Structures are given as C-alpha cells and as structure tokens.
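Shift notes (night). Ran Sodium-dependent transporter while the centrifuge was going.
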Amino acid sequence: MTREKPKNLWLSRWGFILAATGSAVGLGNIWKFPYITGEFGGGAFVLMYLLCILAIGVPVMMCEIAIGRRGRGSPIDAIGRVVRENNGNPLWKAVGGMAMTAGFLILCFYVVVAGWAFAYTVKMLDGSLAATSVEALGGVFEAHNSNPWQLGGWSLLVALLTLWIVAKGVQKGIENAVRWMMPGLAVLLLILVGYAVTSGGFDQGFAFLFSFDTSKITGEALLAALGHAFFTLSLASGAILTYGSYIPDDQSIARTTFMVAIADTCVALLAGLAIFPIIFANGMDPTAGPGLIFMSLPLAFQQMPFGTAFGVLFFAMVSIAALTSAISMIEATVAYLNEKHGISRLKAAMGSGAVLLVISMLAMLSFNLMSGWTPMGKNFFDWLDYLTSRWMMPLGGIFTVLLAGYALRSEIMRDELNLPPLGYALWLFMVRYVCPVLILMVFLHALGWLGFDPLQRWYWIAGAIGALTLVGELLRPRVMPALAGR
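Came back to this:
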C-alpha cells in the first residue's frame, strides 16, 4: 500500500518538539504537579513520577507519534489508514474518534481554568489580590467565579486566542506561535526560579522536592504518579497523534519523544523550584492542594520584595502554558474537518469554535448560575472532567497500546520507529505487557474500583505483568489476528 503523503509538515524537528512540549506543558505541570507533589511528600513522589514517565509516558507517546506519522492525518484518519494498510478492522478508527472527542471536551472546561490564569495576571497587576490571609484570597477566587460575565469573558478570550492561532495553520499558526511562547515560558520560569533562590526558603523547597523519604512511598502516591505521568503528556487526547502526523519521515521518533518527555519533566521540576521556596519562605503549607497557586502564592508574593512584579510574571507564564495546551486540544478536530471534509482551516476553526463556546459556557455557568444543577452530585464542569479523565483517556490509552502492540503487524511499527533490535524489543515488551497493566491500574483507581494498595501487594502487579506476558506469548498467533480483525 502506498503511504499517505503529508499535507502539512513542521518546518523543523524543533517545531514538533516545541509544539508537543507546549501541549504537554500546561496547567498540569505548573498548577497540578506542585500541589500533588506537596500532597504526596515531595521527593519520593518525584522519583515515582519520573519512573512512570519512562514506564508509560515514553512508550505510549512513541505509539501515538508512529501511528500519526504512518497515517498522516487526524486521529480518525491516521488510525484508519494504518489499519487499512494492516488489512484490519475499520472499527479501530473509533479509538481515534474517542481520543479526538476527549481532547475537545477537555478544552471545553480547560478554557475556564486557563481563564483563571489570564484573569489573575491582571488582578495581580491592579491590586485586586491584596489580602491578608489565604481565606480572604479564597473569597476573591469565589467572587471571580460567581460572576458569569467576568468568568465568561476570560474564558472567551482564551477560546478566541486558541482558535485564531489554529485557524492560521500548522506552520504559520501553531509552529510560529510556539516558537516564541515556549522560549518565553522558559525564560519566565528561570527568572522565577532565580527569584525563589533569593526568597530565603530555597533550601527548604529544594529539600522538599528532592529529598527521599521511603515512608512516603505508598500505593496512593504511585497511582497518582502513574495518572499524572499519563495525563501530563497529553496522551489519548488526539493531540500528540495529530502533531505526530506532521513529522517528516527522516526524524527519529524515539529521540524526539525523549526530548519532549525531558523538557516536560524539567518544566514541572522547575515549577516546583519556583513555587515551594516562596511557600516555605512565608511559612505556608506546601500541601495546600489546588489553591496553592491561586490563593497561597498571591499572598506570598505580596509579602516579598518586588512581589507584585514577579506575581505578574508567574501568572503570565501560567497563561502561556495554558494557551499552548489549548491549541493542541482543538487541532485534532480542526485537522479532521479540514482533511476529511475539505473545509478550510478558518471555517473548521469557526465551526468547532462555535460548539466549543456553547459547551464551555455551560462549564463556566457551573460556578454560578447553574451551580445548583448537580445530577448525581456533579455539576456540568465536573462531569466533563470525570468523563474525559476517568473514562475516555485511560480507555483510549489501553486501546492505543493494544493496537500498536497486538493488532498491527510488527513490521509496520518496526519500520516507523526504526529502533535497534534491543530497543524495539524493549519498547514492544513495555507496550504489550507493562503499559496495559499500569494503565488499567490507573483506570480502576480513578473509578475507585482498585481495592488494594499496589505497593503493599506489589506481587499483584508483578503477577499480572508476568501472566499477561505468558498468556500473550502463548496466544499471540491467535490473539493478534483477532484484534486486527483479520
């Protein structure tokens, strides 16, 4: 079968690295990573997180990039073409559809969260965050969310900026945008780390982030690290697969994947080094949870020299990170409409943007006018988060590794990855036997169905991987054709 010719390509390898890193480096790194690190004891959690990036993040990302480049299209089209080359069942395209839908629905509530960062950049500048306690800043946060015009206005700004960049195309829009946004984010982050060094709490912050306490290694922490490693790299959301379809054939997928994973991890660690010293210098609690950057940090900045200026820089950095992720979440949908149905990128962006604005408005209203509408105990915002993070992304990850590891002929992935024999064998083992078990654990834990501590019963994990390896090898001649649909 003749391979699909690429309709769009990154101008350089750095175009993909910056775009994929921008997709991965979002609020998950700068907002969520510091507070879950605080909740799970610092250095021990960081070590588990790094191991999980290697065990799940890198192998699954390589799957998505390879399938995207092989199929040259949106998640639905790319998977459809690769499966067709494999003479497989076209129903596998549903995996691409689920990933694309998950990314779009995540964006529908993500623009609201990103709007907080944009709003706080201005609030930090105009003095709206002047308060004497974390509780008072909690009141400011609640007042912001209870005003639908204010909350909706900032959400709309994020949505319009995202659509404007994506409508301009892969090279002129996305690649040009990330070429200045990602270096700008790195510069702002390094400035903030430098500021943290002078805060008086850097030694405490560094020790908290990197000291190793074995008592903090628990099953709950491991599952949190597994989940965060999976979600922080934008896996199973259509973003990486779509970006992978724009990579030239002569670029190394393995090398590029490791560079993205390293850059993503470095940003997360630097964010911790920027945040925790300031928190410790002001005697605050590093386990403050989601309120760490929207309540604790603004108060800490007020109590430090030049705090307002550095507070503005901090929230500007968070805003850039949020925008680079938002761009990737809608690119799969725009690419699908553009390539499959021949709609121009501008019209595709406008059409998908209209749907985005309606759904995101409902998510925004969950904090004010629709706050009383909570079917089964969740408002609309929470339901979007629950369906995507608890169901669609873990299931998408499992189906992706099953497709790459079992359903596709080995020569397809071997040709695309172009790894040395030992490297390919290691990747294949991880994708077939380790990743399915670990992702399934994340899935069951997220649903509250995992009834034991994995580290106290580590032999369950080892046994599951061993059993899957044995059964998989014994039944592979029958399992693989069945999964492939042949």
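Residues 93-126 form the longest helix (34 residues). The mean pLDDT is 87.
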